[in-house]
Amino acid sequence: VQLVESGGGLGQPGGSLRLSCAASGFTFSSYAMSWYRQAPGLERELVASISSNGYSTYYANSVKGRFTISRDNAKNTVYLQMNSLKPEDTAVYYCKGNLFSTAYWGQGTQVTVSS
Predict the structure, then answer these.
(1) Tens of pLDDT, residue by residue, the chain (115 residues)
(2) What are residue 113's DSSP bridge partners?
(3) pLDDT at res. 102
(4) Burial label, 98 (beta-carbon count in 10 A; 0-12, 13-18, 19+)
(5) What is the pLDDT of residue 91?
(6) Neighbours of 112 (CB within 10 A)
(7) For residue 3, is it left (φ>0), alpha (ψ between -120 and 50) or beta?
(8) Phi, psi at residue 89, to the nearest 5°?
(9) I need a labelling partner for 37 at 20 to 30 A (CA). Which of 75, 79, 108, 112 fits?
(10) CA–CA distance, 10 with 16 (Å, rounded to integer)
């Protein structure tokens, strides 16, 4: 099982970044997928999640209206489009797949928002 995040890096305040998470080794289309983030000294927090069929989404209040989660089950990939970036979005971003009690995590990708 692998979840590999990509697309992180340095973003400008007000700018955009798009994260991708490529999955392999499990039946991706059966799993709900989520993005979490963890800033230094803080607990890991849920940013956004999407149901297995993509019809249902959830966003943390802090990113609602700025971030969009989506998935392509044909490509076994989940995305996080991040717009109107703020310095407080700086964190390591992780993707997670879960189905009932089974959960898989990626290794994380660093996002830094700074001018």
Answers:
(1) 999 999 999 999 999 999 999 999 999 999 999 999 999 999 999 999 999 999 999 999 999 999 999 999 999 999 999 999 999 999 999 999 999 999 999 999 999 999 9
(2) 11
(3) 94
(4) middle
(5) 98
(6) 15
(7) beta
(8) -80, -5
(9) 75
(10) 10
CA dihedral 11, 84, 21, 72 (to 10 degrees): -140
Structure tokens at 65: 């209206």
Give the strand pairing for 102-105 and 77-82: unpaired
- Sequence-separated (6 or more) residues with CB below 8 Å from residue 10: 112, 113, 114
Please give the single-letter amino acid code of residue 63: V
C-alpha distances out from residue 99 to 51, 56, 58, 115, Å? 10, 15, 16, 39
User: Which secondary-structure segment (H or E) carries 4?
Assistant: strand 2-6
| pLDDT at residue 69 in the model | 98
Identify the burial level of 59 via C-beta atoms within 10 angstroms of its C-beta, where 0-12 means exposed, 13-18 middle and 19 or more buried.
Answer: middle
